[in-house]
Write a structure and sequence with these properties.
Layout lengths: L1 H7 L10 H5 L3 H21 L2 H8 L4 H29 L3 H14 L9 H28 L6 H31 L7 H10 L1 H14 L4 E2 L2 E4 L4 E3 L6 H5 L3 H15 L5 H9 L4 H29 L1 H21 L3 H29 L5 H28 L11 H19 L8
Antiparallel strand pairs: 1-2, 2-3
Length: 433
């Protein structure tokens, strides 16, 4: 499986880690990477076009788009807490993750029938509920399957596979848009519906791959960590010791909330690019560029975090995010938005997989499901106010007209710099077992 996956994603092996670190990664890491690849092929056929579908086809205002994005991410966030805790409680991760991927797969075809933003909300609600069900158990399963020395590499590889799938999905979407509507500025319903039907195939492959290819990391109620290098018995500690999180993890969650308040949905970046003249094909090309850069750099960034520390990379990524958002506030042409989105891929590579590896550094193995549930939940729960704030700052609400399209990006840049400063002052993590 590892040879096949490396052939499918040749860039994933281009890391600063020795070759033995790549080849020593267990089967679960490679299969989970492949599962995320297929799932994101499916998701990204639609994700970049959904805000355009709402805005161009259904005529929804930015405040409604922000509301939809906020509600679905909040739903996912709440579910991540519960199912992360449940995976710790049951001592099993795999089948919760399978159920989550299956729910998302069944929800996406509902978009074919959408004739109002409420239909979109319903379909997206089911999709994100599936994400809420699967994310924490899957991340804990990934962390359980590898030792701490290769943890950053494993999460970076997984994010690279995820993003390679997104790039593939965008390529499919780009071809469909070119064939059906050429270089039109606005999205059409027939184009969108064609992609809704096509996305079912890779989504189903992701579910089958996870169900058949991944091995559970528990045995007889005991959690196996790393390469079965040690077995942790959760019954050897008192209940209070097992549930009490380190203060460093709590501080990190607080800082994440602050950053996430300014991190509105990427739908606003897409809408911003369209407002300065980028057509639908250009939007897809812009997002493809973003995902290619994210794919190429995620593995090396994760491996680098194993050597120099994760906190440093997260701080650097957040500072870069602030500069990118300042650029989007002042952008005046489509090519400028495209260039900024390319740099945005660097930010994602420096932070997404690295932050998840950092969470594993901050908590004990038997807490990982709950910890990932909380980590993903605070991001999801903050998405509602973040996206509502962005939509209202842009177009206002009721009789107020808002501050214009630059406002949400100035707001996001300010909070990113503040969060970076606080993270620099926080206590660094010592990798856990």
């Amino acid at each position: 499986m590892s040879r096949i996956t490396r052939h499918a994603f040749p860039s994933l092996t281009m890391t600063s880690q020795p070759k033995s670190a790549i080849t020593s990664l267990p089967r679960n890491i490679w299969v989970l990477t492949l599962v995320s690849y297929f799932n994101d092929v499916s998701s990204e056929m639609l994700a970049s076009l959904l805000p355009l579908f709402l805005f161009n086809v259904l005529g929804a205002p930015t405040s409604i788009i922000g509301l939809i994005e906020g509600i679905i991410e909040t739903t996912a966030g709440l579910l991540k807490i519960f199912f992360g805790w449940l995976s710790d409680r049951l001592g099993e991760r795999k089948w919760l993750a399978v159920a989550g991927y299956a729910l998302s797969t069944l929800s996406k075809p509902l978009l074919f029938f959408a004739d109002s933003w409420l239909w979109v909300l319903g379909a997206r609600f089911g999709d994100r509920a599936g994400k809420g069900l699967r994310t924490a158990p899957r991340d804990a399963l990934l962390a359980d399957s590898v030792n701490e020395k290769n943890r950053g590499l494993a999460f970076g590889l997984h994010r690279a596979g995820d993003t390679a799938g997104a790039a593939t999905g965008l390529l499919v979407a780009l071809v469909v848009v070119w064939v059906t509507q050429k270089n039109s500025l606005e999205l059409t319903r027939p184009t969108f519906n064609t992609l809704v039907l096509l996305n079912i195939i890779p989504a189903a492959l992701a579910v089958l791959g996870l169900a058949l290819g991944v091995r559970e990391t528990t045995k007889d109620g005991q959690r196996v960590t790393g390469h079965a290098s040690r077995i942790h018995d959760p019954h050897s500690e008192s209940p209070s010791a097992r549930t009490q999180f380190d203060s460093r993890f709590k501080i990190f969650l607080i800082i994440i909330v602050l950053f996430a308040l300014g991190n509105s949905s990427d739908a606003f970046l897409i809408l911003r690019a369209q407002t300065v003249g980028l057509p639908v094909l250009g939007v897809l090309g812009m997002m493809l560029t973003f995902n290619v850069i994210y794919t190429l750099l995620s593995g090396p960034a994760g491996a680098l975090s194993d050597k120099v520390g994760r906190r440093q990379l997260i701080v650097g990524g957040w500072c870069l995010y602030g500069l990118i958002y300042l650029g989007f506030a002042r952008v005046t042409a489509g090519w400028q938005a495209w260039g900024l989105m390319a740099v945005y891929g660097i930010y994602y590579a420096l932070t997404e997989g690295v932050a998840k590896a950092y969470v594993a550094d901050l908590v004990r193995a038997e807490q990982r499901g709950t910890a990932y549930g909380l980590f993903n939940a605070v991001i999801g729960l903050t998405a509602l106010p973040a996206s509502l704030i962005a939509g209202v700052l842009w177009q206002g609400a009721f009789s107020w007209k808002g501050f214009g399209p630059a406002a949400p990006f100035y707001f996001g840049a300010a909070l990113a710099i503040l969060a970076s400063t606080l993270l620099i002052w926080s206590v660094p993590a010592k990798p856990s077992g």
